Amino acid sequence: MSINSNALSTYKLLKATAEVAEKSLEGRIQHYRAHLKSEDKELRTYTQKAAADLLGVNNRTLKRRHDQGDFDHLSIQKGANGHYAYTLSNIFAMADTLGIKSDHRSDQDKLQVIVINSLKGGCGKTTSLVNLAAALATTNIKRYRIGIIDLDPQGSSSSFFPSDDHEPITVGDLMRDCIELEEGETWPQLVSESFQKTHIPNIRFLPSGMDDFYFEHETATELKESSGYDQTRHYHKLKERVIEPVQDEFDLILIDTAPSLNFMFYNALMASTAMLIPVHPEAVDFDANNKYLKRLGEIYHTVAALGHEGWDFMQFLVTNYVKGNHSQRDIVKDVRTAFGRQVMSYPINHSSAITASSSSFNTIFDQKTSDSLASRESLLKSQENIKDVVDELEMLIRSNWVSTQSSLD
Ligand SMILES: Nc1ncnc2c1ncn2[C@@H]1O[C@H](COP(=O)(O)OP(=O)(O)OP(=O)(O)O)[C@@H](O)[C@H]1O
Ligand SMILES: [Mg+2]
């Protein structure tokens, strides 16, 4: 087969562009790593008062327990001002010492697997997901065990949780079965290790990689050559190969997706127990969203026919909402009129703090207030906003756990 010479030039241009883009991305990551002052991403630290608030104990109790030497084994560092600077890991370990129990789901409570998806690119899927996860992990002492899976090969959420490993095992590697087990290693062990620890102690992260794109092509080929669903189980790979082997290690798994209804997305649907659909309140986005919903119904029908057990909840989440913008307010009204209680009570507001922290791959809960490129006021305001959204999300999750239902009723 001969290639047209013009096409060859186009191809060369694309290759050169890709090299420049790769260097630029690497440069950006280096730059922000340097900005973070250490190779490993560090979480903000807490003052003694903030630690006491998070632990739900009085500041004097904390001081007394320090004086008694109860926390000596934790080697808590002091800041430049000579006061304790607690990390979240310190605070969680202190909670253990103080007998404050973690609030994990019980054996009879179902693991919640929440998928965030919309066909509309740039509507805030990744930003919302990473900030909601960080809020749920860091703003209470429950120590939920949270997993995040980046099912978007572009890896936007992976940038928020950088891996020490330059070539980490990706979700696509596991779904495509292209990793060989070491001698004596089991599949659940391999999957468990692939969910890497992050700078947030109770979040583990399974990254994506560009090669995950091959999943689409390989699945299409597999389908052509197979005689029936049971031979390929191509929509069950995420659920059966990735999630079920580690389901006892998590209370909650959040899945970020690409703006696409591809095979990866069918897999996300099959694994999901709940769905969050971000809606950016701009007219064109809302119209696109309505078309997407029609298609989603059709896709869901396929997944249901293959054994999906239904969602515990499906909610629309208004994202990147500019308060005071009249046309956005009218669209939010339309969204609420159309979908009623399926819409989360609070939108995620547009915030300069989110813009600033996202540009350095941080959530608004990661950073020291002094490191934020936004004002302290805007950071705190945005944190309060996300916490309101998370409170409702947490209520939705817990209302589906048998062990927490009665106390809510
Ligand atoms: N609440 C917010 N405040 C400020 N900026 C926001 C907010 N939500 C999203 N953004 C910005 O909007 C842009 C798109 O957001 P994001 O990447 O989360 O969208 P996405 O739906 O994940 O996109 P894709 O479809 O490409 O995966 C980003 O630049 C992000 O920083
Ligand atoms: Mg995204």
From TrEMBL:
SUPFAM superfamilies: P-loop containing nucleoside triphosphate hydrolases
Span of domain AAA: 112-301
Superkingdom assignment: Bacteria
Protein name: Chromosome partitioning protein ParA
